[in-house]
Amino acid sequence: MTADKIKLAFVVNDVATEQDNYSTIRLARRAVARGHQVALIGLGDFIYDWEEGICAMATLSKISEFEDDTDYLAHLQNTGMDRTRIALSDWDILMLRSDPAEELVARSWAPSSSLLFAQLASLQRTIVLNDPRHLTDAVNKTYFQGFPASVRPETMITREPKEVRRFLDAHGGKGVIKPLQGSGGQGVFLLDKRNRQNLNQITEAVIRDGYAIVQEYLPAAADGDLRIITLNGRPLKVDGTYASLRRFSQTEDHRSNISAGGGYEMMAPDENALAIAEIVGPKLIDDGMYLTGLDIVGDKMIELNVDTPGGISFMEDLSGVNFSGAIIDDLERKIRLQRQYGGTLTNRQLAVI
């Protein structure tokens, strides 16, 4: 069935701070190339209008053909690009693609405000992905603790240095500490005998802006981790290839995040990884988590990214597989289903159907 042209809006932290290797930019460029109307909205760009409901000041592409993501982003960030006022009730899909961790200091109000606007937008015809009501529950890593214990490393969440020490003593003196709300490997420390004398200082640095999460150290982490993209609660697989990437440290720094300088290569998920994806799938579906990133080490999931799951552009460039095109295909399918059911399906149902 030939897809009708759709209107697809992406919520980002700020158009000016987007980078050309972000998955959002790849998805947006693919959609523009198909003739869909695409808008980018910053967290501070929403408007509640007493007559029109949720509106926004948006950046829209003025042309549809771009050489690559860098060319597309340069077009969006051109200083001569005017923003356009749009009413979201006229738009088919709103994809929430902002990183709350980036707003902790300067704009702590922005993520929660944008989620409330998104919730209101989802009451109309606009499909909002991921489902904004459950996304509100997932604003930090406590959401992670709602998954079965069998797929999670043993964990403590605290702001007490003595509790961190007690956890380490119970786990052979080794563990990983990081902010409860964070991303991209920022503020992540490996704790062991070499830096035990600095434990108080490390803990204080992590809890400066909130709670710390401490996890048992997984020896398999020395080989990096596996990022698996899920779509509709299941691993994304296109033309026999999984959207799955091994990330590994290239320095003495233990972090494997690409944003922290880690290396990466395509790698198919093994039986352990697929088993984890199968276990977490039902909750992702029940919570309307359309697009997520599972970070897996050995037989444990160490992170779950439900806000800005990335790596898609890297996966495509390495494999030549059009994962972003498959996601756009799926968005077009959701719009068809919504229209065929005459608006009787809920936003959460449409998010993962």
UniProtKB/TrEMBL annotation:
Keywords from the named record: ATP-binding, Ligase, Nucleotide-binding
Residues of the ATP-grasp domain: 141-332
The keyword Amino-acid biosynthesis belongs to this UniProt entry's keyword annotation: no
Signal peptide extent: none
Enzyme class: ligase
InterPro entries: ATP-grasp, ATP_grasp_subdomain_1, GSHS_ATP-bd, GSHS_N, PreATP-grasp_dom_sf
Domain of life of the native organism: Bacteria
EC nos: 6.3.2.3
GO molecular function: glutathione synthase activity
Name the record gives this protein: Glutathione synthase
Species, as recorded: Qipengyuania citrea
